[in-house]
Prior knowledge:
- By secondary structure, this protein is mostly helical.
- The chain has helices at residues 32-53, 61-80, 89-105, 118-140, 155-170, 172-205, 207-244; strands spanning 17-19, 22-23, 26-27, 30-31.
- Strands 1-4 form a two-stranded antiparallel sheet. A two-stranded antiparallel sheet has the order 2-3.
- Strand 2 (22-23) and strand 3 form a beta hairpin.
- The longest helix has 38 residues, at 207-244.
Amino acid sequence: MAQGSGHSPMAQFEIHKIVDMKIGNFDVSFTNSSLWMVIAVVTILIFLLIGTRKRQLIPGRWQSMVELSYEFIASMIRENIGTEGLRYFPFIFTLFMFILFCNLLGMIPFSFTVTSHIIVTFSLAMAIFMGVTLIGIIRHGFSFLGFFVPKGVPFVLLILLVPIEILSYFTRPISLSLRLFANMMAGHMMLKVFGGFVVMLGIFWGWAPLLFIVGLTTLEVGIAILQAYVFTILTCIYLNDAIHLHH
Length: 247
């Protein structure tokens, strides 16, 4: 690592090996990214276990938060897919909680934001894209191809619209992953840049960027929650398309 690279806004996104491992020619090392994914999963499990440990008629603080999370995702599925989509509740709930906790844990100073890496968000998006496509094909067979043919459109226009629909469908994993990755990466870079201004300007002049960082941190927490929501609701919409063949 070059001298002073630790002060670069990009340094916070660097992957470091913690345990060097290889299987054949494949590098499967346990990295700082792997570590924070494990921390996110463990934190989610602790949150759910504490919240469901004492199931009371009048819920306490932790039970209320778990029940709110459960009901929030269940309502999202009912509104966007219908009751038929509730069979996919475990996957969608897990997806939302994982992204949410990865985003929020990334707000802790000196932590690592897993979702600021395109390989992580693209892997999630590609898995969703392939899963949703398989569900559509299994449920509808060759009729699934009708999803790319808009109804009520003159035949001449179909020559133009069908390729657009196909292109739009296959770019879904790219747009889904880029949105989450770009938002998380840009926010953390801005926090790092303005943090550098505070240090550089000192106590006398640094209060202005410090106030800005406080406001920006609050905004970033909101964006972390919002991006988890957007990623999950788009997954619901794609799933609805596969189940009901809606445009």
